[in-house]
Amino acid sequence: EADIYQTPRYLVIGTGKKITLECSQTMGHDKMYWYQQDPGMELHLIHYSYGVNSTEKGDLSSESTVSRIRTEHFPLTLESARPSHTSQYLCASSEFFRDTEAFFGQGTRLTVV
Amino acid sequence: GESVGLHLPTLSVQEGDNSIINCAYSNSASDYFIWYKQESGKGPQFIIDIRSNMDKRQGQRVTVLLNKTVKHLSLQIAATQPGDSAVYFCAETLDNYGQNFVFGPGTRLSVLP
User: Fold this and answer.
1) Minimal Cα distance from B9: which residue of A?
2) Which of A94, A102, A113, B77 is the most buried (most CB within 10 A)?
3) In 3D, which of A87, A78, A83, A95 has the Cα closest to residue A28?
4) Which fold has domain A4-112?
């Protein structure tokens, strides 16, 4: 079992609310990622980090922001949730020099009403 | 940008038969190719990867074949079991460190009793 955890698993929230999706890993991995995945569809990279104080935007434009103050923690924040943000968000981590093998959390399924 | 795609969205096989899941990629500069398995309600799980200087790599019950001439990747699962039912994603990356990988749309494998 991978030691990467996401909370909450499911979240239903009203439009305009600010939310933070949590992601923590205990493997000491430098690299962490956030992916967005609609049901049955491919994963789209929205943010990644090479290590502490490093944050980068991914391939898919996102209105979310991330921070990396500690190695093990990579939270994702939506300042003002909209229905278009409804999706599954997956967090992952990998060793910097072996990053084809990423370890994924179970995901947070977000519904904005 | 470059993309990775799959030929078939769904595949059904009888339990005990071999499965072959195909993937086409477009970036001839990609150096690593990866297969992930995603079971319902879970995050993707690494299966196997292959570097571009190889044409075949075997794991436990799985074999990945790479044909760089036609930019084609396949995952073969021997003696398919009910636990193999999942969505399978291929991904490509330019290298084994630092660069991010691009996922394809996924193939849903259903194992029939």
Assistant:
1) A40
2) A102
3) A95
4) Immunoglobulin-like (2.60.40)
